[in-house]
Amino acid sequence: MNKPIGIFDSGIGGVTVLREIIKILPNEEYIYYSDSLYNPYGDRTQKEIQDRSDYIVQYLIDKNCKAIVIACNTATAMAVNYLRSKYTKIPIIAIEPAYKMVYDYSYKNPTLVMATKGTIKSERFNILLQKYDNKKTTLLSCIGLADIIEKGDQKEIKDYLDKNISKYKGKVKNVVLGCTHYPLIEKEIKEVLGEDIIIFQGAERLAVHLKDVLEEKGLIQKENLEKEKINDSNEKEIIEKEKTNKSNLKEKNKTNIIFIDSSNNEVKKERFYELLK
Predict the structure, then answer these.
(1) Choice between 238 and 83, residue whose per-residue pLDDT is larger
(2) Distances (CA, A) of 114 to 25, 122, 176, 177, 254
């Protein structure tokens, strides 16, 4: 029987990470843990975040998960080293602000890093910043934004962005989304800062890294490795099969992903599956 991959976030923002993972690992089983009872993590102490993350990881291990994905930048910043030192027998893959991507692809341009207060103040993020600093970077602690996104109130989101980031319009080219909730409002951020800004977020790279780790450790579901070779005799058949697989993917996601919310919030559950489409 295939073992699931465990994913957790302080809420439903980690769905932006899961969507990227599913693109390259569509045949895996997933358990997603939304810790909305303790949301937002950005305002909590490191000890609180470590304790919650420890509880959730142990819960996911008890559910027979073969790998853990931390889909919360603040949990990564505050707890990943602790978790990896405690749980040495299971791979723990963690999201981080995609600041290195600025260094790799758009180093000379002025940069805005949007993240929680906890992430920006963390030692882990500041080591990353110092290593790849382009000397044109502004750090913005978006206090309360993840919670507003969690609620899904579009007017409140627009008002927050107008108040807090509109002053950067025309002054930044790169925007690093240092919280997994923020890609859910990428469109709204561009409406305020301009369509020509370059958005950086780390979910796609995390998904690739997860696949590499699972392959290396022999943990990957075999169906993810099976690739049919297209030739003249079966090309049409395979193309039709691929179309069918894509059309069935949304429906399949409902059955191979278990959603758990620490506050047992059914509204969040419904929104999670809606965002997953």
Answers:
(1) 83
(2) 28, 14, 6, 5, 31
CATH architecture of 99-200: 3-Layer(aba) Sandwich (3.40)
Q: What are phi and psi of 171, to 5 degrees?
A: -110, -15
Which DSSP string do the residues of 109-165 spell out, in sequence order? S-EEEEE-HHHHHSHHHHHHHHHH--S-EEEEE-TTHHHHHHHT-HHHHHHHHHHHT
- Residue 245 pLDDT greater than 60, yes or no: no
Q: Which two tokens stand for residue 50?
A: 């470590």
Catalytic residue annotation:
72, 179
On whether the CB atoms of residues 5 and 27 are closer than 8 A, the answer is no
The pTM of the whole model exceeds 0.85: yes
Helix or strand holding residue 57 (H, E): helix 46-62
Domain limits, the chain: 5-95+203-227+244-276, 99-200
How would DSSP label each residue in 32-45?
EEE-GGG--GGGS-
On whether the 5-95+203-227+244-276 domain is CATH 3.20.140.10, my answer is: no
Whether 5-95+203-227+244-276 and 99-200 share one fold: the answer is yes
Higher-pLDDT residue of 35, 224: 35
Q: Residue 34 pairs with which residues in a beta bridge?
A: 9, 261
